[in-house]
Amino acid sequence: MDEDETQIEFLYEYRISKSQFDQLKDHEKVLVAMSCFAITEINVFSRVYIFASPPEIGAEVIDRLNFIQRFIVLRTWSAKIFEFFSFIEKIVPKSDWGAEFRELISSAQEEFSRIRSQDKYSVVRLIRHEVTNHYSYDAAMKNMKHVADGAEIAFHLHTMDGNCWYPLGEEVMFSGRLNRHTSNRATVEERLNISSEWMEWNLEATRAVRDFHGNVLTELILKKFPDKKAQKKMYWLPQSHVAAISSTYVPIVARKEIKE
Fold first, then answer.
1. pTM for this one?
2. Separation CA 191–CA 185 (nearest Å)
3. pLDDT at 228 > cutoff 90
C-alpha cells in the first residue's frame, strides 16, 4: 500500500472471548449487545451527518437536493435514538437482576425521560412516527393541505437510478408535516429554528446514550474482567477511508469515474 495515499489511525481494542461473554447473565448480555448495537448505529449516522452538510453553492436545485440528503440522515439518526430510548424505557428489571443492573436502568430511564420531556422533542417524535419509520397514507393526506404554494414539484432524473431525486415527496411528507406542526406555512427563519432545535436535541440525546453505553460496559464488562486492558492498534487506511471535517462531503451525484 502506497504510504503517500494512506493515513495512520489508532484504535484501542478491548477483547473478550465468547466463553467470557457467556459468563454474564442473559439479561446482562442482552443489554450489552443492544447498547453496542444502538451506539454503533447512532455513531455512524452522527458522523455521516457531518459530511452530509456541505455549504450551499447558490444553485437552487442543487442546494435543495443537499438539503434533502442532509435531512434524510438527520431523520434516521433521530429515529435510532428514539428506538433506543424506547427499548430502555420498556425494561422492567426483576428483583433478582442485581442492584447495579437495576440502578443502571433506573438512572437511564430517568435521564431519557427528562430529554424526551423537552418541547423540541415534539418535532423528533412526529417526524419519526409519520415520516422516518412509517409511511402513512393518512399522514400524507393531512400533509397535502399544508404544502407550500412554491413547493418543488419536479423530478430530477439521471441515467443512474441512484442519482434520481423526487423532491415532491419531501415537500409533502417532510415540509408539509413541519407546516402542519406550526399550523401555517413555516418561514425560512422558522424552519431554520426548528432545524437548530432538532439538532440540539439530537446532540444532547446522543451524549446521553454514549454516557449510558459507557456505564453499561464499565459495570457489566470492565469490572467483571479487571485484568483485561485495551490494546493500542495501528492501521494504515486508504486516503478514501479518512476525511477531515469540513473538507469532504457526501456527494449527491455518483459516477463510475471522474473525467478530467
1. 0.89
2. 10
3. yes
